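User: Could you check the structure of this?
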Amino acid sequence: MVKKLRGINKKILLVIALLGGVFLSLATVKTMAYTDSPGFCRNCHTMKSEYTSFMDSTHSGLSCNDCHLPHNNIAQKLFFKGRAGMTHVYYNSLGTDKIPNVIHATNRTKETVNENCISCHKSTLTNVSHNAKDNCVSCHQSVPHGKGFKDEHFNKPPKSGELLDNKGGY
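Assistant: Sure, the predicted structure tokens are below.
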């Protein structure tokens, strides 16, 4: 086989290698984008209610990993995604009896989500006091996930002074 490869024109080998690299790059990019999507996360039976509430939220235009993965650098994002992905594969294949009825974020995930909330909502933080709790999820735990997060007050504007009285929360 090595003799056959040596016999092929080097330019043809270079073109084949380049095309293979382009194909591999495109496949990797498409795979990464798909695994960031809500449609991919919905495939797990444990995520069905989270997906449903997410699709009815104001954040439904985002991908799951816009909130759930760090964005400091690509290496950190890929490491975090790989570790979380392997954990999910384990629980959904070998540890199904250990899957809790209600999934709670790990401390690492809570920190990442909080950093991403702050990153996207910087302008809100300068307009409304947000020093009532330790993190965003303390007050906004049902956004964008949670049953009944859109109650009768959701589309009504706040009463005068209400946000200041509650330090930006409800």
